[in-house]
Amino acid sequence: MSFSVEYRSVQKISGPLIFVEGVSDVGFNELVEVKDAEGGLRRGRVLEINRGVAAVEVFEGTTGLSTTSTSVRFLGKPLTIPLSTEMLGRVFNGLGEPIDGGPAPFTEEYRDVNGLPMNPYSRDYPTQFIQTGVSAIDGMDTLVRGQKLPIFSGSGLPHNLLATQIARQATIVGEEVSFAVVFVAMGIKHDEAAFFKRSFEESGALKNSAIFLNLADDPPVERLVTPRSALTLAEYLAFEQDMHVLVILTDMTNYAEALREISAAREEVPSRKGYPGYMYSDFASIYERAGRIKGRKGSITQMPVLTMPNDDITHPIPDLTGYITEGQIVLDRDLHRRGIYPPINILPSLSRLMKDGIGKGKTREDHGPVASQLYSAYARAQELRSLSAIIGEEGLTEKDRAYLRFGDSFERKFLNQGIDENRSLETTLTLAWEQLSLLPETELTRIPDRFVKMYYKRT
Amino acid sequence: MAKIGRITKISGPVVQAEGVAGLEMHELTMVGNEELIGEVVRVEGDLATIQVYEDTAGLKLGEPVKGSGMPLAVELGPGLLQSIFDGIQRPLTVIRDATGDFVRRGVKATALPRDKKWHFVPLKKIGDYAAPGTIVGKVQETPLLEHRILVPPNREGKIDFIADEGEYTIEDCIAKLSKDGEIYELKMYHKWPVRKPRPYIERLEPSEPLITGQRIIDMFFPVAKGGAVSIPGGFGTGKTITSHQLAAWSDCEVIIYIGCGERGNEMTEVLINFPEWKDPRSGRPLMERTVLIANTSNMPVAAREASIYTGVTIAEYFRDMGYNVGVMADSTSRWAEALREISGRLEEMPAEEGYPSYLASRLGEFYERAGRVKSLSGLYGSVTLVGAVSPPGGDFSEPVTVHTKRFVRAFWALDSALASMRHYPAINWLTSYSEYTDYVEKWWNERTNGRWKELRLKALDILKKEDDLKEVIRLVGIESLPETEKLIMETARLLREGFLQQNAYDPVDTYSSPEKQFKLLSAILQFHEIALKALSKGTPVSKISSLTSVTDLAKVRMSVPNEKAEEIDRFLERIQADIKRLTGEGI
Ligand SMILES: Nc1ncnc2c1ncn2[C@@H]1O[C@H](COP(=O)(O)OP(=O)(O)O)[C@@H](O)[C@H]1O
Ligand SMILES: [Mg+2]
C-alpha cells in the first residue's frame, strides 16, 4: 500500500512545487507528506502526474527543501479536516490544526476539504431578510440568508470595521436561532487578525466562532487550502448541525495572489494580469459553497472581503468575484475621505437576491420601489454634481438644485451612521422617505402613488 | 472497439492514455476504475488525450481507459421537457437520488426515463415509406407540446410494422422499417452526436419576429425566429435576467435554457418560477415547454464545454418536429473559458488572451446552428440562439465578444452605467443593433397600420438627440437651451422611464404584448407632438413636465395591463386636456 512507500526521488524544486520521479499508484489531488532534512513534516497535494513524475504543491512552502535530502510519502487520500461542533470558540491554521494551544477536537468525522458541488436541484432559494442594522445595506442592497455578498474595498478603507459590524449586528428579526461565525483570514496582518478576534470577544460572538488563520507571514500555498478547510466546517455546521453560519473570508486578493504564484511556478499560460485562466472556476469552488438546501434547516451566508488593487473594479479579482457572487458592496475612497461611514457607494453596489428578501410580509411593501427611486435619484444627483462643478449652480433648474440637496442629505443622514449604530429597518425606511421628500413629488416616478400618499413628506 | 489503454498523465480534467490505437476523435470513453465519462480530444499514434466530464481527484496512473465506439451523444425522445440535466444530459434528479444533495462522480444515468409509458398515436401505416426525419406518430408529452416521433436523420425504409395507438415506453419498438433487406426497429427515441448539426432540407431567410414581450427588444432591436443574438455585459448588468425573461415570455414552442458555468441559485430560481408562471398565450405553466441544462460554475469544467452542444442538439431535434425553439446560453464566455482551460492542459499554442486559436471557428460553428429551416419532415421550424457574453472588466474588445459579433446579427449591449442607475433592462440604445429589423418590418407593419418603422426611427432619433444635447448641457447648462430642445430632453426622459425601462419583477410590466408596446410608444411620441404645439403658443416645457398627467404616462407600463392596452389612449387624452388648459384654450 502507498503509505509504506517513501520516495527520495525529488528531481526538481520550483517555487512552491516539488517534482517527484518514479512514482506509481499515486492519485491526482491526493495528500502528500514531505519530510525535510531535519525530519520536519510538511504537507502537500498532487497537482499533476505525468508518466512517473508527480508535481506536488507544498502547503508550507519549499524553503529548506533540497533534491537530495527530501523524502515524500503519498497518503492515498485527499486532504481532510476533522469536524465537530467543539470547533466553535477555537482557532486553527489553514489546514484545520488547532493553534490556540488547546487539544485537537475529538471526533470521528473527517471530510475532504475540497467539498462537492451542491446539486442545483437540491438548492433552496434564499429568501430570508437578514437585518444588518446598516441602512445602506438593509435599505438598498439587502442581504439574505444563504447569499454570497462580498465587500469590494481598497487598502486603507474600513472594510474590517464594516465586516465586524455586520457580524455583530446581523439578525433575523423575531427569530432565535443557532448562529455561528466562521472567520477565515488569508494573508492578512497580525494586527488585523487581532482586531477581528477582539471584536468577536467583545460582542460575545467568539464562543460561536471558529477562526482559521493564515496570516501574511504564513506560507502562501496554505492560503489556498484555508477557505476550503473553513467551508468544510461551515457545511458541517449548516447542513448537519442545523446552524446558520456566516462565513467571513478576508482577504480574497491575497488568496488570488497565492493562486497566481502557483500557476507561475507551473509555467501555465496566464490569462489577464498573469492570473490563471481557471481562476473563475477556482473562485466558484469557494463562493458556490454558500447557500441553502431543501429540507435542511441551516444555511451558509458568505461575506468575502477583497481589496481592489489600485481601487480598480475591473481588475480580475473583483471582476471574477462579481461574476460569481450574488452582488457586491463597494466601498469608496471619496466618501471615506469626506468622513462618511460606512463609505458605501451604492451605485456600483448590488444585491441580486434583494428582491426575494423584501416587500410585503418580509420587510415593507414600499421597500423595493423606495430603493429603486433612491438609486435613480442619487445617480441623478451625482450627475448634477459634476455638471454644477463646471457650469455652477446657476445653470441648473430649481428641480436640479433639489436633487443636489437630496444627494448631500442622503450621504450625511442615510448612508452615514455610527460603527455601533444598529438601525431597525423601520428607521432605515423612515430616513429614506425623509430624503425622498426633498424632491418634488412628480419626480417619484418609480413609486406607486399609494405609497407616495402614505409616506411622502410625512416625517 | 478500441483496446483497453492505461492512464499515463493526469492534469485536472485532462487525462492521457496509451495503448489505445483506434480510439476516435470525440469518442465517448470510460476513464479509470470508476469508469468516469470522458471524450477524446486528441489522438497521436497509440496515445489519446481525453477530457473527463467528472472530477478526476484520486484517479491514478495505470488505471484503464476504454472506448465506447460511439461519439458523445444525446438521447432524443419523450421525457425531455420539464427535465433538468447536467452538461452531458444526466438528469440532476437522478443524480440526487443516487448521491444526495451533493454531486458525486461516477453516476451512470440515462437521460430519458425508461419505465414511463407514453400514449403513442401512429400517423403512418404499414406500407408507407418513411424517409429520414419522417413523423411516424405523436405523443402528447405535456399539455403544451405534442412530441412528434421522428425517424432518425440517418435511417429510412418501408414501414413493415407500426404499433397501434396505446401506451409504450421509449424502449418499445413502435415501428419496423425495412430497406435493402435490413430491418430497423424504430423506438420513440434515438441518439444523436452533440457535435454534429442535425441535417435539414433547406435553410430559409428569417421572416417573423421572435416576440419577447421586452419593449426595447421587440421595438428597437428585434430578433427574428431562427436568428442569433448576443447579450454582452459586465457583471450585474442583467444578462441572466434578460435570458430568463426571454425564456419565460418568448413566443417559442420550446425553450432550452443552458446555465453554463454560472450560479446554482439561478437554476433554482427557474425551477421555482417556471412551474408557476403561465405562458401568456396558452395559460399553461412555462415549465411544460422548457428543458433546463445546468452545469454550474462549480461543476466539472469539461462538462461545461459540452453543455452548449447538448442544448443546441436538443433544440434542433424539436426544430425538426416543426417547432420554433429558443435557446438561451448563459454564459458563452464560461464555455470559452472551459475551452481555454482544456486547451492549456493540452499545451496548445495560445492565441489572444490564452484562448486557443480555434475559438472563433468554434463560436462560428455554434451560432451557425441557429436558423429557420425546412426540416426533413417537411415542416418549418427554427432555432433561435441567444448567447450571454461576460467580458472581463466589461470590456467589449476582448476576444469572445469580438468574435461573437462576427456570427450574430443582433447585439444587445448591456451597460454598467445604466445598470448602476437601475435603468433595467440596461440595454444601451446607442450601441446595440439588430440586422433583423428589415426582416420583421413586414410582420409589424401589418399589425400597426404600417407605422412601426416610422415610430421606432423617430423614437431612436429623439434618444440620439438627447445624447447630443447632453454634451451641450454639460457645457452651458439646461437653462440656456431653447424650449424645443428642452422638450426633446423631456420626451427622451419619458421614453427612457416610461418605455425602455421594464421591470422584470413587476407582474404587469414584465411582459408587454405587441399591442401594448406599440400603443405606449405612439402615446409618448404623440405627447411630443402635442407639447411641441403648446410651445409654439408660448407654454414653457417646465409647466408641461410638471403636469401629473405627464408623470402618469411614465407609469403606464406598470399601471395598464396588456388586456387593457386601449386605456393608454385615455392617458393621452388627459395630457391633451391639461396642455390645452395651460395654453389657455379651455377644454
Ligand atoms: N429587467 C430587469 N428588471 C429588474 N431588475 C433587473 C432587470 N435586469 C436586471 N435587473 C437587476 O440586475 C441584477 C443583475 O442582473 P443579472 O441578470 O443577474 O446580471 P448578470 O447576469 O449580467 O450578472 C438583478 O439581480 C436585478 O436586480
Ligand atoms: Mg448572470
Topology:
The complex is a heterodimer of chains A (459) and B (587).
Chain A: E1 10-14, E2 17-20, E3 31-35, E4 41-50, E5 53-58, E6 71-74, E7 80-82, E8 90-93, E9 110-112, E10 123-124, E11 129-130, H1 135-140, E12 143-144, E13 151-153, H2 159-169, E14 179-188, H3 190-203, E15 209-215, H4 220-239, E16 244-250, H5 252-265, H6 279-287, E17 292-293, E18 299-307, H7 316-324, E19 327-330, H8 333-337, E20 350-351, H9 354-357, H10 367-391, H11 398-415, H12 425-436, H13 449-455
Parallel strand pairs in A: 8-15, 13-18, 13-19, 14-15, 14-16, 16-18
Antiparallel strand pairs in A: 1-2, 2-5, 3-4, 3-6, 4-5, 7-9, 10-17, 11-12, 19-20
Chain B: E1 5-11, E2 14-18, E3 27-31, E4 36-44, E5 47-52, E6 64-71, E7 73-76, E8 84-85, H1 92-99, E9 118-122, E10 129-130, E11 135-142, E12 145-150, E13 157-162, E14 166-168, E15 175-179, E16 182-186, E17 190-193, E18 202-204, H2 215-220, E19 228-232, H3 239-249, E20 254-260, H4 264-273, E21 290-295, H5 301-319, E22 324-330, H6 332-345, H7 359-367, E23 371-374, E24 380-389, H8 399-407, E25 410-411, H9 416-420, E26 433-434, H10 437-447, H11 452-476, H12 483-500, H13 514-536, H14 541-545, H15 548-559, H16 568-582
Parallel strand pairs in B: 8-21, 19-24, 19-25, 20-21, 20-22, 22-24
Antiparallel strand pairs in B: 1-2, 1-6, 2-5, 3-4, 3-6, 4-5, 7-17, 9-11, 9-14, 10-13, 11-12, 13-15, 15-16, 18-23, 23-24, 25-26
Helix pairs in contact in B: 5-6, 7-8, 11-12, 11-13, 12-13, 12-15, 13-16, 15-16
The structure holds adenosine-5'-diphosphate and magnesium ion (MG).
Adenosine-5'-diphosphate is lined by residues 233, 235-241, 424-425, 502-505 of chain B.
